[in-house]
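In full, the data.
>
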Amino acid sequence: MAKKSISKGVIKDIVIVGVGVLVIWIGLQVAFGTQNPFYVVASGSMIPVLEVYDVLVVQGHEPFEDIEVGDIIVFNRPSDHNRVIVHRVASIIDDDPKTIRTKGDANPASIPGTDFPITEKEYIGKVAYTIPQVGYVTQLLKPPINYVIIAVVIGIMVVKQMAKKKSEKELPLSDPLNSENSETTDELSDIDKIEKDTEYSEHTEKSKEVDELGDVDDSEYLEKMEEMKKEMEDIDESIEKSVDDKTDEKKN
């Protein structure tokens, strides 16, 4: 089961990376209007403007009809189309159809079959940006180094998945009331020591008194009421008698 989980995790990571790269690549193709927006300078024919291993960002949306003398363009070699060339436009040979001649800045002259005749069929795009010397990275991606890099990346993914599974297995499943968790045990032991809430206690006592009164039957209740009535009458008589005595004393 562990091996299956690890393999699934690695495959998931690879798929995410692959999809991300694919989306970015397609987006760049659409933005620059060419199947490959990036080219690496492989020769010194354009020194000093372009150095070997400079990376060129090519704009394919630039129409061939708008290309002028002095522009640096990327095109397929007209003689066999088996090589990509980046040279500067030297002249317009013909306008119908448009045909141009190019030349490398470091070359003494244009080379037939390489620099001309260039038509729209050979045209790839115009150089829009230059990223100096980044092309060295492409040398690291040539076999067998590229396979080593891929193996290292996959190895890192496998190790990451294994470490994740190991950490999940080592998580302690401890009892919250275990003696090792002394703080939790102490807190629970203090429950009996909590002082009673006075308002709650008073409410409870009153509830008990009401319950006791509710338990007295009707006859006892009537007897108590009669006794209380008689006591009140005796108190009233006592008060009246006291008042009369004081009145007589004042008259005398």
The chain has a mean pLDDT of 77.
